[in-house]
Hints:
alpha+beta
Amino acid sequence: MYKSPRGTADILPGEQGYFRFIEERAALLCQLYGYERIDTPVFEDARLFIRTIGPGTDIVEKETYTFDDRSGQAMTLRPEGTAPICRAYIEHGMHNLPQPMRLYYFASIFRYERPQKGRYRQHQQFGVEAIGDGDPALDAEVIDVACQFFDSLGIGNLSLQLNSIGCKLCRPAYLEELKGHYSAHVDRLCSDCKARLRKNPLRLMDCKKPYCQDIAQSAPRSIEHLCPQCKEHFESVVNYLLILGIPFEKNHRLVRGLDYYTKTVFEIQPQGEEGAQSAVGGGGRYDDLIEELGGKPTPAIGFAVGIERIVLNMKQQGVIPPAPSAQMVFVAYLGDEAKAEAVKLTAELRRGGIAVVSNLGDRSLKAQLRQANTLGVAYALIIGEEEVDSRTVMLRDMAKGEQRKVSMDEVVGLLERS
Ligand code: AMP
């Protein structure tokens, strides 16, 4: 028996309502804020991700799905959404368009992680990117989109965590301080943190092991080591969030897992689980990324949210997506002649814009009506020998359990008006 690969899941019809609802709300919100949809390929040149996410990061070291294609070129399945969009921004000369470019996407993301609740090897993200402006008001706008998005889904009990990790001018000195702090405790660090101390010291801050957490708690804070420009930027973001009435908590341990972030970083987490691996979304500024990829210096900011985790939170909080418009009509029949009429009527109804499912095959009328019930249709149309002879159909209102005969020629118009 084949099963879906470890860490992946089928989204069955019964679950689709959640995903559709989330996508619809996101698209509507993006329209309100002037963000336009962009789609990029599922795979890219492997070097794009190594270069942007960073060679010392967990994603690049342990989690990418990379393969040589048949011409021997290394390709990577998209492990995050931002780098491909920056690649597209440069490739299509989007800097010539009015800035900032406001973009959004839905994308499948692939990371070879240890599967657990809310952590999969393929998941879906909705993300936005605002590229081409360094104004802190844009940071606040992007954070506002994220918050409004969760609001519009009816998910509550979330907390916005905020930090600044500085820029290439002020971060190196901060990292030295951080290394100094951790070096004093190196013997007791977990093996991952020992490696981080050498390769990616910023990530030391978000280790989940209890001893490492204690050390992080007393570690030097990035916001206390910002250069004047980063400090002013951070203060300004805070000020705009206050103006917008968006509650947030400063979290000096929030660093995010990718190398390209600068200045503002943020995450949205279920309340009480701050610091756990439960974030429903996160993002930040990446002012050097476009230049790193060969474009002009172009400041930018974005975020991404994990759709599966949102669905988990919706279920936990009892948020039920609106039911999809039910198949309105079920066509049932008895006998060969009736079947021919049923096939014709089904087609006419569909061409009239009415959703129909019809029985096909030889089930009893009782079985057909049971199926109509299970599908939750509003009406069943029943055609038997007598109806064929009198060119009528039996129209059954499923909720009321009442039925009446109507003319075959009028039924489409009747249902169109109902
Ligand atoms: P990241 O860029 O890693 O912060 O991802 C953005 C969001 O995607 C996270 O806040 C999570 O909600 C979600 N996410 C990240 N990795 C996974 C995963 N392996 N499985 C499910 N959701 C994920």
